[in-house]
Amino acid sequence: MKYHEKLHLFFKAKNLSNKEVAEKMEVSPTMIGRYFMGTAEFSSVFIRKLMIEFPEIDLKYIFSEEKDWAEGLDVCEEPPEAYRMESEEMIDELASIEKKLSIIRAELARKRPIK
Question: Considering the entire predicted model, what is its pTM?
Answer without folding.
Answer: 0.55
